[in-house]
Design goal:
The structure holds two protein chains of two kinds. The longest helix of chain A is centred in the C-terminal third of the chain and has 26 residues. In chain A, a hairpin with a 2-residue loop joins strand 3 and strand 4. By secondary structure, chain A is of the alpha+beta class. Chain A contains five helices and five strands, in the order H-E-H-H-E-E-E-H-E-H. Chain B is built from 23 helices and 17 strands. The termini of chain B are far apart.
Amino acid sequence: MGKMTLTQLRKHREQKQDDVARGKVEGKAIQVIIGMGTCGIAAGARKTYDEILRHVEEHGLASQVLIRQTGCMGLCTVEPTVEVVMPGLPSVIYGKMTADSAKDLVLKHLVGKRLLNNHIFDRPAVDIIGAASHGGAASVGATSNSGAASVGATSNSAAAKGND
Amino acid sequence: MAYKNFILVCGGTGCESCRSEEIYKNLMMEAEIQGLKEEVQVVRTGCFGFCEKGPIVKVLPQESFYVEVKPEDAREIIAEQVVKGREVKRLLYDKGDGAAAAAAAAAAEGKADLRSYQKQYRIVLRNCGVIDPENIDEYIAREGYEALEKALFEMKSADVIAELKASGLRGRGGAGFPTGMKWEFTRAAPGTVKYVICNADEGDPGAYMDRATIEGDPHSVIEAMAICGYTVGATKGYVYIRAEYPLAIERLRIAIRQAEEYGLLGKDILGSGVDFDLEIRLGAGAFVCGEETALMRSLEGNRGMPVPKPPFPATSGLWKKPTVINNVETFANVPMVILRGSKWFTSIGTEKSPGTKVFALTGKINNSGLVEVPMGTTLREIIFDIGGGIRNNRKFKGVQTGGPSGGIIVEKDLDAPISYESLTALGSMMGSGGMIVMDEDDCVVDVSKFYMEFCVDESCGKCAPCRIGTNQMHSILDRMTKGSGEPSDLAKLEKIGQAMTKASLCMLGGSAANPTLSTIRHFREEYEEHIRDHKCRAGSCKTLLRFSIIPEKCIGCGLCAKRCPVQCIAGEKKVAHVIDQAKCIKCGECQKSCKFGAVVKS
């Protein structure tokens, strides 16, 4: 995509928000999100990433699972951190996910649909961005945002209509 | 087989000590008794950081957050929540009904909803740990570049400034100057060429808020800088970042390229007719280059040394042109202030310090990490709730805020709500956000020496008070830690410190004495002990330590002699051993190895 006009940007945003709302990113339903800030990488996040990828492929899950990176979540003592978002299970953040834990994550969580013991940490704060948030805390965030976000949202839809 | 419910039981040390293990077992047992083993999974978790209200139990997917749970509550949680799908109201943290209604009411008034049990509220870090920082689309999907749209197409530059001024946003680099005023002065300054600079030269020991922000959400800074360019009439911006942050630089580069591709930077942004270009400039890691005038000299290609103010950067900054220079965290706030409005922003934090502050919580703390809290949160909440208290159950001694320019804050002041004014009143400062927690094993003289050594290394040498003062203070502190302090030393430290504070050219020297002066104020006795008794009660000044063996307790096993790296422990088998003080390097290995408590430190 090249340079955009205002209408194009708004349309592009709506489309991306729709993708997130439908729970699919790049056509995959399961997301494994690895914290890859300097602190995560120093604690071995790259190895964890590689190991998760290997086990996902070995179990034939590559077509369903998207492995992504993100920045630092702030839970520096328990790096590497990995968030798992998948249908049928609540989204959770796992800490202390060294490469050795990758197999457990794939076998127990992704395949067995069970949460892992001794690794879950709480999301540090509610998400103030409504549209794209996932997990339970989002409901609160979404409501509180609706008022403030309405300005942008209205103008968005108006712009989209204008473009049609 | 799929579970309907997941019960998370906090397994942090705080909760464990109040019987969380028993709760876990009871929940498992109840699930079995009530025939629900296939319906519910009970999971032990890491620390949830809400220890004062522990033990914590959280039920998913309902997000029911139970506090002060007792083992005997297990039956009710299973019977009510898993079987009947009803929350156990009396255990809920937020017992009131209508949480959604309250949230909606706050939203209707354009205010933030701050009622969560979580003490953190993330504006600056809103996308950190959520989006892929190397993918602009993920930022865009989360209201990214909406503030830029709003500013360019719905607001005049005067409106942006009015909104910022009304929001009360103040510089997060530490000094707390109102951002709206800075932008207004620059906009009003005569001249057609103006600049926007982002100060990402984060140099305080233990501080990494800006690094994490750029690594996790580079576009928030880019968007804010473009808004700033439009507002003040600048078409060129620079991010000055230290070369020792390679990952942040790489992600910023990728982000700038992506923004250019989308036409969010460059010529005629989104067809608005506004131009704004952004470049990265690498700093070599000199602490003084975080000082804005020195930073601009370095950006110009000169040696990074401060120049006296006024003139302020707003009228004569980079290449003597009007310049806005803001810190990373300040910029990261801007898109949200523009998008949500000043009313929303001022509903968070305190009257004079609205919004949040990011802190890098490190030192002797259980949950070290990056925290963002509303201004007005107390240090106690940060250290003991979010931070989970002091490691290994040691005693809290103090917390250093503001790095080498700040001071120590002690137990009695922990309940002060955090704001620019309150921290200054306590003899410290907000600073950029480093927060180093110390326990009883940390020696204040040694810590002061560490910070002073840092200032000696980092002083640019341009002005005498800082160049000579830091050296003098360091040598005095150094001799105190080695047992050769003199009775007049404390008075000397105070005198030099005050002179430096008054006479230095920039804040590096102007604040370098703060850690020493504030620790003398709070821990004068410990300084005196070092001078008079050659004693370090924290046991961290090694020269002053003395390890010895109590003959009555020593059985002569010889283990300590074997472990000693310099072979300075001697003795016959089964006879009390003796340490040769002249050879001892005070490593403490003998004490660690002795199973009979015969080795003592004094």
